[in-house]
Structures are given as structure tokens and as C-alpha cells.
Amino acid sequence: MRVLFLVSDGNWSARARAFVLAARGLKARGHDVLLACDAEGPVQMRAAASDVPVLPLRADASVAGDAWQLRHALQDKKVDVVFVHTDEEHLVAGSALRLGRGAGAVIRRVPPFTLASRGSRVATRMATTALLFSTEADRQAAGDVGRHQLLAAIAPLSVDPAEHERAAPMTRESLGADADALLIVCAHDGGHKRRVFAVLRTVALLAPRHPNLHVAVIGEARQDELRMHGAALGINAKVTYLGARQDELSIIRAADVGWIAAEGDAAAFAALDFMACRTAVLAERSPLTEHFVSDGVAGLLLAQTDATTVAAAVAAFLEQKERRVTMGNAGNARLLRDFGLDAMIGGFEQAMTAVGGRTAQTVP
Q1: Does pLDDT of 58 surpass 60?
Q2: For residues 65 and 248, what is the distance between their CA atoms, to the nearest angstrom?
Q3: How many Cβ atoms from other residues are within 10 Å of residue 113's Cβ?
Q4: At residue 179, does pLDDT exceed 90?
Q5: What are phi and psi of 40, to 5 degrees?
Q6: Pick from 12, 15, 13: which is nearest to 83 by CA?
Q7: Percent above pLDDT 70 for the chain
Q8: DSSP string, 24-46
Q9: Does the pTM of the predicted model rise above 0.90?
Q10: Measured between alpha carbons, how far is 126 from 364 in angstroms, rounded to an integer?
Q11: Which end of the chain is more exposed for a tag (fewer CB within 10 A), N or C?
Q12: What is the pLDDT of residue 120?
């Protein structure tokens, strides 16, 4: 089939990563894929590195402008399916399909444990619409999505462990830590700051008795705000604020412990990345973390209690090196068993097949 992935994010993001990974997998299975994103931006560079063909879009275009740019590609390539994430992307894709082909479908991917919406009524009338979930629980929670039944499929999120094996671990010195430091890599997406602030407060409580402890914070968060909070706690000498990095897998591979302070796709990818690197995981207990991280097996899920209680649990966890190694190996085994890349790509294919029969006729 002929497939286009639409990414409106200006910066590299977890949902952009999901689409690049899916596009690469579908291309390997013989599908004609194309990824539309901002011209010469981080997403285009990452897609090019993954050998995914790119349709560059003007970054300053409006919804109508994006739809007008896309219509030519959809018409020339005879695109059957467009994958999107957001309401705006849904409207752009639906408009472009109507203008370009008069036929085709839009599949809206829902990040794990995120409330699904059916999008605007206008967008769903322009083109056949389906939903793609990451878990069966998400599909069941969505029901018929606002009493408007939509086709639904499941593509469990995954990673390619071969990419992690190719990434060389970054040295502790390059991360601002001592060579013998116990390194925690914290993945934060810029969402609920409460989670990452809890990590920093825990470090402040542990620092006096764990002088070799060091934390590296990666992700899309605003690092200046985190630095201010770290400065107020007096721990910035023990924290390196890295933000979004192209070499994040090398940073993750260097970790002794992974700590998830994110949600949605960012949290899911963090869990899978740590598991792929055989790294034990710390995370606040939630439906998402319970789905990806087996508590007491692949890591430790923390209850939302006071900082002192969390610090005590983390301190005991850090002192048990053999247990952490065992957990890292168990997480890796579960990744290979339950979150295989073939299942993810197969889910995208099933969604495409499901809408294929409904797009044979021109959209009314």
C-alpha cells in the first residue's frame, strides 16, 4: 500500500519517533512510504538517517497551507492511507485527501494510556477515519469514541534492540560525572513537572549518604526551569541537564538505573529503551508504567508518597547491585517476548488493511 505519515512537531518527539520507526518497518515489508514533516528540521534529519523518504513542508504554513502542500503528494503518489496524531493533523490530512484524491483514509494513532478522541466532525466526514491504539486496554477504554463507531486496531509500541546494541555507551566524564559515579538517567518529556521535581528532591535527600550518585536528565523539558529547581535544592553539581539529544541511546546505555518521569509515548519509549539496554527501571506507579515495567521484576514502581519514603525505597534499590542486574536482564527478556518490533509493524499493517476496503469508493 501507499502510506504517508504526517508529523507536525517542529522538534524531535516520541510520537515522531513512533512514526519513523513504523515507516521504516513498513518500507522493509514492501510498502511505499513517505513521511511529511518540517523542511530541514530534526524530524527530517532523523527520518533520513533511518532511510525513510521525506516530503518537506514549510514550517510556517497554516492548516490550509499544509493541506494544499500535501494534496499534490497524495495525488501524485496515489496515497491510500495517512497516519496522524493530532486534531490539526487529522484536519490537514482529511482536507488533503479530499482535495488531492477524493479517496483514501486517515488513521489516527493514540499514544499509550491517553484518552482517545474522534477528532473534528469535519475531518471525519472528509475521509474514512480509523484509530490505532497501543494496547487492548486503550481500545476498550475508548469504547465507540463518542457514540461514533470507528474502525480500531492495535499496534503495541516497540523499539529495535539492534539500534541500542550499536550505540556506544557514553563516558561518565562526558556527562559531567565522576568515573566511578552511580549514574541515573532520568527521562523527562516536559509534561508533569511534579515527576521530575520528585526525582530532584530524592537526589537531594540521598546526596549526603551517596556522594557518588549522579543524575543525567534527558528529554524535551525546559532545562533552565529544572536547573533553577536543582539550584534551590543545592544539587546541581550532581545533576547534568541534557535536554533532547540525538545521542540519547548512548546516554541510556551508560545508565546504571533508568528513571521515568514522563507520560504517553515518551514514558513508553523510555521504559522500552531501558529494557533494551538491560537497565533496571524506577518509575512512579501508574497504569502505563505497570503495563511496561513488571514491578519487582524489571524495576521498582514507586507510590505517590512523601519524598522521604521514596528516598528510602530508592536508597535500598541503589544498594542492591546484583538485584538491579537481574532486573535489567528480566526487563530485556520481557521486551523481546512481549514487545517485539514485528508486532508493532504488523499492527500498523492491520490498520491499513482494515481501512482499505472502505476507501475503494470516492469519499462522499
Answers
A1: yes
A2: 34
A3: 22
A4: yes
A5: 60, 25
A6: 15
A7: 93
A8: HHHHHTT-EEEEEEETTSHHHHH
A9: yes
A10: 8
A11: C
A12: 62
